[in-house]
């Protein structure tokens, strides 16, 4: 069971949507579609801003309470980065279909309800942002997200970036952080048992993953081998879009 | 009623209905310095509503609690139902040398929380509609917290068939020695039902407080496997076989705050903001960003069990540290109320 450690993205591959993206990273593959601004139901419309509607569909089965929770988290996050005031009384719809999720051979296969809600959240957010960029919806910023686990390692604890399902299960705490491209923390979800000091340490590691090096406290950070150093994730979004635009304009 | 004056004056209630955002802003940042700044409900930004807890009010539940925090009132009932292991499709008898994880609470869904908001607790929660996103989100958050906090012990929920007892009919001794003679025949499944009697903001904190108080109040009757009838029977509570309380590990308490920004659309960076602890319904509609922290200070060192921050970019690590202190104070308050 190999999990690819490099993110991959494919943009604008769906014909009938305004924007679409397929993103895979760390065992998760999600197909996202963004439509908007489109017609909204009379009962849902807001007079001064666009309604952002997020739909998450799991790999197997129909969505349940877990998908509603993920949808509400993603919706409150996307509302902050989309320029919703430009499109009053319209709907911006983002649909995220999970196609693959990494397996954990150590647990009972039935476990859908029992596992945590959070591990898939970074991949969902990333797919949503790429879909919105593909749809050319005006955004104030883009997002990068990462997940980390704090695992007991002898006497001390070590922080693992992008942990596997088995590592999440045996960890003491699991954290998801999301930063805007202006290096502000927009989402922080943590569960388990930890102290504030541990949280600050994981925050620093996540910041190094997602933000520009100048945003972090130390200027010259040593590049770690096992993590995308510095602007890795931000750079990935940029290079994906540059590649897409280059191929679109190849006729010029 | 408009008086014959040059300027149009509105009562504060009308002001609140027409333009709620400037109304709250005017309360927090009064135009003249003589009026003290406060929230619309008279509280200070860091002031939460006091809890009041009443337990064992439901006669047919194994445990129950009614928790009030201001105008938010939640009632939680815990009922245990038996589930035979023969009816669990993926049941595995735990072997002594098992390396795989054996978390019975998660594997067999032994805790089933549910939140019912459509009770008429607020004008926008009228009965007769399927669960809204908020109700579903609350249910799943309670479920996640119940499992990740390791509050309950699977051992309390096992129902055994003690084979040693059936061999000697005369001796009714407690045979604790040989584990091989005890077989798990069934489990108690706890149905934790949370109903909102009235809703005035901050549903998660109060719902969790009610669940915690109800679980602490829960007493399960003595249940055993009857070999002859091949079913689980419960004994009426007697001095020999009393109801047993659950072993609750720790005391996690939730604390939520909403961030109110001066400008309705928070532009990047800057801008004045207030962190309002324990928001009410009006404040929740005006705030985009919320922070929830679940802490447990039972062992002296503050352990954080959950941090959930979403909807904005105001709260960073510095504010989170301050908020941890607010959550610790809330923990002390709640523990005092429970005793």
Describe this structure in words.
The complex is a heterodimer of chains A (252) and B (339). By secondary structure, chain A is of the alpha+beta class. Helices cover 27% and strands 29% of the residues of chain A. Chain A is built from five helices and nine strands, in the order ββββαβαββαββαα. In chain A, the strands form two sheets. In chain A, strands 1-2-3-5-4 form a five-stranded mixed beta sheet. In chain A, strands 7-6-8-9 form a four-stranded antiparallel beta sheet, sandwiched between helices. Chain A is globular. Chain A starts with 7 loop residues before the first strand and ends with a helix. The relative contact order of chain A is 0.14. Chain B is an alpha+beta fold and 339 residues long. Chain B has eight helices and 14 strands. In chain B, helix 1 packs across helix 2. The longest helix of chain B is centred in the last third of the chain and has 22 residues. Chain B is elongated, with a radius of gyration of 25 Å. About 4% of the residues of chain B have low confidence. The chains are: A alpha+beta (252), B alpha+beta (339). Chains A and B meet through helix 1, strand 9 and helix 4 of A and helix 4, strand 14 and helix 8 of B.
């Amino acid at each position: 069971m190999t999990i690819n450690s490099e993110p991959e993205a494919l943009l604008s591959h769906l014909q009938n949507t305004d924007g679409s993206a397929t993103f895979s990273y760390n065992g998760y593959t999600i197909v996202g579609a963004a439509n908007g601004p489109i017609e909204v139901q009379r009962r849902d419309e807001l007079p001064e801003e666009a309604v952002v509607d997020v739909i998450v569909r799991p790999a197997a089965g129909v969505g349940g309470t877990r998908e509603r929770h993920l949808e509400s988290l993603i919706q409150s996050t996307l509302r902050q980065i989309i320029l919703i005031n430009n499109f009053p009384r319209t709907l911006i719809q983002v649909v995220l279909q999970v196609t693959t999720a990494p397996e954990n051979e150590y647990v009972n296969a039935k476990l859908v309800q029992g596992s945590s809600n959070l591990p898939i959240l970074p991949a969902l957010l990333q797919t949503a942002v790429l879909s919105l960029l593909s749809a050319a919806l005006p955004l104030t910023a883009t997002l990068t997200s990462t997940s980390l686990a704090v695992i007991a390692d002898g006497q001390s604890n070590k922080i693992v970036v992008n942990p596997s399902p088995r590592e999440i299960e045996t960890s003491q705490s699991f954290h998801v952080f999301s930063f805007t491209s202006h290096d502000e923390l927009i989402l922080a979800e943590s569960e388990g048992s930890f102290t504030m000091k541990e949280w600050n340490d994981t925050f620093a590691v996540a910041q190094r993953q997602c933000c520009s090096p100048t945003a972090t406290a130390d200027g010259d950070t040593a590049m770690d081998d096992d993590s995308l150093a510095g602007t890795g994730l931000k750079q990935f979004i940029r290079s994906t879009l540059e590649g897409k635009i280059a191929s679109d304009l190849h006729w010029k | 009623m408009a008086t014959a004056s040059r300027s149009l004056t509105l009562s504060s209630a009308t002001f609140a209905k027409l333009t709620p955002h400037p109304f709250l802003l005017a309360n927090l940042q009064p135009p003249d310095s003589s009026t003290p700044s406060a929230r619309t409900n008279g509280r200070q930004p860091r002031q939460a509503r006091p809890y009041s807890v009443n337990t064992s009010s439901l006669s047919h539940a194994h445990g129950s609690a009614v928790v009030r925090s201001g105008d938010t009132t939640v009632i939680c009932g815990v009922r245990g139902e038996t589930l035979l292991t023969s009816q669990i499709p993926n049941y595995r008898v735990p072997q002594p040398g098992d390396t795989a994880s054996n978390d019975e609470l998660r594997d067999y869904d032994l805790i089933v929380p549910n939140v019912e908001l459509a009770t008429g607790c607020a004008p926008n929660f009228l009965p007769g509609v399927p669960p809204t996103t908020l109700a579903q989100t609350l249910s799943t958050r309670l479920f996640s917290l119940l499992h990740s906090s390791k509050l309950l012990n699977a051992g309390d929920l096992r129902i055994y068939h003690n084979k040693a007892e059936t061999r000697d009919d005369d001796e009714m001794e407690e045979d604790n020695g040989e584990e091989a003679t005890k077989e798990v025949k069934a489990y108690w499944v706890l149905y934790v039902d949370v109903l909102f009697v009235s809703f005035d903001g901050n549903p998660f904190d109060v719902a969790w407080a009610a669940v915690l108080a109800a679980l602490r109040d829960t007493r399960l009757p003595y249940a055993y496997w009857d070999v002859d009838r091949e079913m689980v029977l419960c004994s009426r509570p007697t001095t020999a076989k009393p109801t047993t309380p659950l072993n609750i590990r720790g005391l996690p308490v939730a604390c939520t705050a909403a961030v109110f920004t001066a400008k309705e659309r928070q532009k990047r960076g800057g801008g004045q903001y207030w962190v309002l602890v324990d928001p009410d319904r009006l404040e929740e509609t005006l705030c985009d960003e919320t922070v929830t922290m679940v802490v447990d200070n039972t062992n002296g060192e503050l352990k954080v069990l959950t941090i959930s921050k979403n909807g904005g970019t105001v709260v960073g690590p510095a504010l989170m540290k301050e908020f941890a202190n607010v959550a610790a104070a809330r923990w002390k308050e709640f523990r005092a109320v429970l005793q």
